[in-house]
Write a structure and sequence with these properties.
Oligomer: single chain
Helix content: 25-40%
Radius of gyration: 27 Å
Number of strands: 17
Amino acid sequence: MPRFLHTADWQMGRSYSRFETEDGAALVEARFEAIEKLAQLANEHHCDAVLVAGDVFDAQTVSDRTIRRVFNATKGFTGTWVMLPGNHDAALAESVWTRAQRLGAVPENVHLALQPGVINLEAQNLSILCAPLTQRNTYGDLTEPFSGYESPQGFPRIGLAHGSVEGLLPDEIDSTNPIAPDRAEASRLDYLALGDWHGTKQINDRTWYSGTPEPERFRNNEAGNALIVEVSEPGATPKVTQLPTGRYQWHQWRQTLAVQSDLEQLLERLDALPESAVVELRLEGSITLAGEETLLKALSIAEARFRSLRCERSGLQLAPTDEDIAALKADGYVGEVIESLRQRQEDAQDDAARDALAILAGLLREREQEASQ
């Protein structure tokens, strides 16, 4: 019973410049660890091959070091690897793949599907029908020739392609490369291994996107998996098993705060996340000064616990209550300043007024703490 691992969209060489340097470096390293994890899983599940459905590299211009590290990371599985160029690493006349070959970085057990056609894995009894991208964008279905490809009798026919299944992924695709939704049936494929959609997604019994093995975006699309595929015999429905591979979990929340319970629920959600979380928050609404103090303390703790936490609070107004002002002992002129800043913030959505109010409240708290010591 042939068994293989289906993966895609490694995007090696991807940078994370929007993150702090330390966090960006950790996210980059996790992608190399994901390849090592794939090799480990291929061994544990006694796979005959690993099929990579495009976008191994994020760009043609990745460094030589990245190229070497990618192939080094595959060494944990000494079986067969088949790598297909995608839209980010298309098989141009001069490409990241030709550089890898010149560097001597490609191990003997790694097959590069740089040309359309069939790779017959004799020892594994598998025929891999390949549709590599030879330019970044195409507007015809590169899998259409699969129907005319011959394969040895008794070998399951496995399609390997990178693009968008027409009519199913119209709004969030990475490339314009179309694939017919009935390709598996039309070309007598036992399984069609796809890349380009970065989440795990089943199209039909024989057609799947594996998704990227390590999430790299704030998108709730089941990223961070690989697929183990078993085909008992040609024509049989494949058995597909989804396995988690991702190290980091990405969460993007937008939340409006209005009452104390909103803040409490937000902090409970944060507390429930694992240390491997990469979190982006956008907070809106209003919060009391006491609530703001609680929020800032919780965010400070979470920043140290999570892999990354970024919080946008420009849309969150400070709304001091009478109790806030009383606690700050901001009477007389200082109380009038606080009221003026609060009014400016509400009337004109004035970020400067909000920041000034937060700074003034902080200074008053420090003064009160010093006085009580």
